[in-house]
Design a protein that fits this description.
With about 140 residues, the chain is mainly beta. The protein is built from one helix and six strands; from the N terminus they run ββββββα. A hairpin with a 2-residue loop joins strand 4 and strand 5.
């Protein structure tokens, strides 16, 4: 098991829909935005993200006008299944004034696994081969 720290950027363009032509979105999703986050994944199961959402526009539907800039923090729990992870998450959105919202959701994550751990067994094998080449 491993833990990792990283930077994530989410981009959402509310003017385009790939799957549905007449998709009715929540007021939050009706706005295009960029979400810049610092992300922590602990033991492949627990995710913590802290970020800043910068909206492209500030208007949305039905008395739910979101400020142009909002802070967010997300807690996620993932169940790793080899190359996929299934997760649930909760996100708090706030401008530390009047705008305070909670979102929840489900996620499906692909585990690419670019950086694999370097086991002690492999390290010992390389050390042994170097010693043989040196003739020791």
């Amino acid at each position: 098991m491993y833990s990792q720290v990283g930077i994530k950027v989410d981009h959402f363009d509310a003017t385009k829909s790939i799957i549905f032509d007449s998709l009715h979105l929540s007021p939050l999703a009706q706005q295009s935005y960029n979400n810049f986050q610092i992300s922590f994944l602990i033991r492949k199961c627990l995710g913590l993200d802290f970020g800043f959402i910068n909206s492209k526009n500030t208007t949305s539907g039905l008395n739910n006008i979101r400020p142009k800039s909002v802070y967010n923090s997300t807690v996620s729990f993932y169940i790793p299944l080899n190359v996929l992870s299934i997760g649930v998450n909760a996100r708090i959105l706030t401008d530390f004034k009047d705008y305070n919202r909670i979102q929840y959701g489900l996620s499906l994550k692909f585990n690419i696994g670019i950086l694999k751990p370097f086991p002690k067994k492999d390290r010992e094998e390389i050390k042994t081969k170097i010693l043989k080449i040196k003739g020791i």
